[in-house]
Amino acid sequence: MTNTTDTDTTAAPAPTGETVLEARGVTMRFGGLTAVRSVDLQVNAGEIVGLIGPNGAGKTTFFNCLTGLYVPTEGTVSYKGTVLPPKPHLVTKAGIARTFQNIRLFSNMTVLENVLVGRHTRTKEGLWSALLRGPGFKRAEAASEARAMELLTFIGLENKAQHLAKNLPYGEQRKLEIARALASDPGLLLLDEPTAGMNPQETRAAEELIFAIRDMGIAVLVIEHDMRFIFNLCDRVACLVQGEKLIEGTASEVQGDERVIAAYLGEPFEGDPGADEVAEVEAAEASAGAAAAAGPTAEPKPTPNPTAEPAAGAAGTTPDTTPDTTPDPAPAEGSTAAESSTTSTEGEAK
Ligand SMILES: Nc1ncnc2c1ncn2[C@@H]1O[C@H](COP(=O)(O)OP(=O)(O)OP(=O)(O)O)[C@@H](O)[C@H]1O
C-alpha cells in the first residue's frame, strides 16, 4: 500500500451525517423473477456500508438500479435529496461512481488514459473545442491530467502511468478501476466485489484504500462475499436474501444474526419460505443414509458400462469406464487476471 492518506484529492467532503444515497422501495423484476423486492437503503456521508447476501440474492441488480443501468420496476433512488433519473451518465454526473464485479478497463490504453476517461463527466470542453485544440481545451486537458496523476499517486500507480492497463498485475488493475471511478469526483462510490480474486495481502491493501477514500469525504457502498473484509470495514451492513433486505445493522448485529448465518450456510430459519421443502429433503436424505448403512446390497451402485458407445467426436478412442470422482475446480470469485486482460470494457451490466 502506498501513500493513500497524504494526498490531497480535492473531493469536497459532504457534511457528516448528511444522507448521500436514499433508495426507497427499489424493486426489479425480470419477467416473472423478482430479483430485488422493495429494498430501502440509506448511505450517509462519512459511512462505509456493506451489502452482503448469498449468490443470486440481487446485490448486483440493486447496484444496477442505483446507477441507472437498470430502470427499477418500482421505487426511487435519490442522491443528496434529489431523485436521480435512471441514466448512467446522469447518475455519474450527479456524483455516484462505481466499479464492476468483472474488471472493465480499456486494456490497450495506458493507465493514465484509463483514469482520464473517468474525468469526462467533469470536463466542459465539447467536440469542437477538442478538434480545434484551442487554449481553453489545452488548459482543461492539463488540469484533467494533473488530477488523474494525483489519483494515480493516491492509489500508488504514479510510476506506471504510461504502462498499458493490460500489463498491470490483477490487484493493480482493480486499484486502477477505483482510480478511474474516483476521477469523476464522486460523493458516493459503489464497489462491486472489489477483492474478488485477490490474495490476502491485496485484500488488506484494498481495505486500507477504502478507508482512505472514506477519509477524504467519499461515502462507500460495497458488495463483498469476504465476510472478514466486510465486517472489518463497514459501519453498517445490509443483507439481501432472495431480493429482500433481511437485516441491516452494525457489523456485530449482522454477524450474529441467525438468519444471516442460515442464509449463508443454507440452513432454514423460522419463517423461511423454503423451510418445509428443506425439511423434506433432509428427511429423504436421512432415510437414504439409513438404507445405505443397512448394507452394501441395500442400494446397488450403478456400474459403468464398458461397452458404452464413445461420445460423439471421440471415435477411435477407448471409452473411459472409470467414474470421474475428481471434483471440478471451484469457479473463482469474479474474474482472474488472465480473464481480466480480455474483459470487455462495455457490454452486459454485470
Ligand atoms: N438481466 C437479467 N435478466 C434476467 N435475470 C437477471 C438479470 N440480471 C440478474 N438476473 C437474475 O436476478 C437474480 C439476482 O442476480 P444478481 O446478479 O443481482 O445477484 P447477486 O446477489 O449479485 O449474485 P452474486 O453474488 O452471485 O453476484 C438472479 O436470479 C439472476 O439470475
Strand order of the largest sheet: 6-7-8-3-9-10
- CATH fold name of the largest domain: Rossmann fold
- How many angstroms separate the termini? 28 Å
Sequence stretches where pLDDT stays below 50 over 5 or more residues: 1-12, 297-349
**Could you tell me the number of beta strands?**
10
DSSP strand content: 15-25%
Shape: globular
Mean pLDDT score, rounded?
A: 78
Structure keywords:
single chain; 350 residues; alpha/beta; Rossmann fold; 6-stranded mixed sheet; 4-stranded antiparallel sheet; 10 strands; 35% helix; disordered N terminus; disordered C terminus; binds adenosine-5'-triphosphate
Describe the 3D structure:
The protein is of the alpha/beta class and 350 residues long. It folds into 2 domains: 185 residues, P-loop containing nucleotide triphosphate hydrolases (Rossmann fold, 3-Layer(aba) Sandwich); 79 residues, no CATH class. 35% of the residues lie in helices and 18% in strands. The chain has 12 helices and 10 strands. The strands form 2 sheets. A 6-stranded mixed beta sheet has the order 6-7-8-3-9-10, sandwiched between helices. The chain has a 4-stranded antiparallel beta sheet with strand order 2-1-4-5, with helices on one face. Strand 7, helix 7 and strand 8 form a beta-alpha-beta unit. Helix 3 packs parallel to helix 6 and helix 5 packs across helix 6. The longest helix is centred in the middle third of the chain and has 21 residues. The protein is globular, with a radius of gyration of 25 Å. The two termini are 28 Å apart. The N terminus and C terminus are likely disordered. The structure holds adenosine-5'-triphosphate.
